[in-house]
Amino acid sequence: MTFFAIILGMVLVQRFYELYLASRNAKYIRARGGYEIGAEHYKYIVGLHLFFFLSLLLEVSTRSSPFRLASWWMYPFCFFLLAQLLRYWCIRSLGKHWNTRILIVPGVQPVVRGPYRFLRHPNYLVVAIELCCLPLIFSAYVTAILFSVLNAWVLLRIRIPLEERSLYEANHP
């Protein structure tokens, strides 16, 4: 089994676990009066991540030396690993409020512990690092650039402004 298959497999298992965790947390949040904002764009975020993995697999497997590592692969790999630590710090800090969706519980203030003391949206930083660094480990430059740009556009133009506005409105009626 190649290093690429091991890493890709581990990341996919991690994603499926996160979807399970998000589903479980969503039930908890909804039971406390929470509601979802931005459900109409969520399918595009899921699609972006699905096509990221397909693009990565396609780009890596179709070149003349498939599955080879970049000569400097350890640098993006280290950033990728650090991003995973930050991801789980985010999940732990938010507890049952962590989700892949935008779920609002009226009157509940945003979390300001853990990495949220320093950054407003650290989990989005994790995703940005991941979408750039994972392909760079395997010299998949097109995937790294394309999905970094698409992710930045979705986050900066749609997701973060909607989340910020929704949190403000839920806490300042």
UniProtKB/TrEMBL annotation:
Keywords: Membrane, Transmembrane, Transmembrane helix. It is a multi-pass membrane protein. Pfam families: ICMT. The chain crosses the membrane at residues 42-60, 72-89, 124-156. It comes from the Bacteria. InterPro entries: ICMT_MeTrfase (IPR007269). GO terms for cellular component: membrane. The keyword Transmembrane applies. One of its GO terms (molecular function) is protein C-terminal S-isoprenylcysteine carboxyl O-methyltransferase activity. It is found in: Membrane. This is Isoprenylcysteine carboxyl methyltransferase. The lineage of its organism: Bacteria, Bacillati, Bacillota, Bacilli, Bacillales. The gene is ypbQ.
